[in-house]
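USER:
Before I trust my own judgement here, I would like a peer's view. Write it directly below this note and I will take it from there.

ASSISTANT:
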Amino acid sequence: MPDERPDYLTVREVADLYRVSVSALYTQRYRSEPPGALGVKVGRRLLWKRSELDVWWTSQQERAGS
């Protein structure tokens, strides 16, 4: 069965995924802190590539020793 997860996520989807507020993501983006800083402007939209978020999340788990 193919992976049915979307390749790109909206700000609301990323906020829900990491259980943070939308404003927290925008603040992280402003401060160049991930995961907010991983977002890319596409036209008027801000999108996150799922594969980049997965890599970032894995590195955070490894740093925490999980």
